[in-house]
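So, can you check this record?

>
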Amino acid sequence: MPELLAYDGRKIGEAGLCNLYNLTTNQQAIRDFVALTHDSIGNLEPILDVYPDRPAPVVRKTDGGLELARLTWGMPTPVEHLKTPDAPDTGVTNVRKTWIRHWQQWLGVEHRCVVPATAFSEYGQVPDPVTKRKPLYWFALDQAQPLFFFAGIWTRWEGTRGSNRTPRPGEHELFAFLTTDVNEVVKPIHPKAMPVILTNSDEVEVWLTADWREAKALQRPFPADRLEGIEKPATPTG
């Protein structure tokens, strides 16, 4: 197993979740992987770090085929977990307990999507003695960081996003991706969960079109021999 490299982590949300991933690719690579029929995102940044409550590309099924769209990362939070019923919602980025009623409403094919990525990060468990921050570790399929997809869900939602200081009321299109048990590569860093990863067109097709009984089988740990620790991806510029 390659040595896992740690990087000083900025505060990007709850340290127990995958709350930062990277997409370093181009639209043609996504088109070739999933046979897009419609692209509504405009120009895709060549390097994109994705943080919670920020827009990011997803692929979803529409009446006309597969669309590449830009949605905001973070599904609606269960009301009982908001500070107050009218508090701005920062969203839920990772979904694991799909048997909970709140999530079951979005498990049908009309609410499933796949999220393109080339690397994801997890926080380590021990804070740096100097910075007091938990370090970030990065993972990819291999050192070349080829394209893969997270298994996701999405919805349109009316309400207020953001924070009390910078609320964003209105209609939003939101997404999150599923997580599952960790494999032996991620486990030493983050023993609780890892994203659900799809790496071929057959898996993407099942996730986007199959009934839930078949699709939920994809919510499983990714094989450890197909995942590596990597250096921190290049940082977007401009």
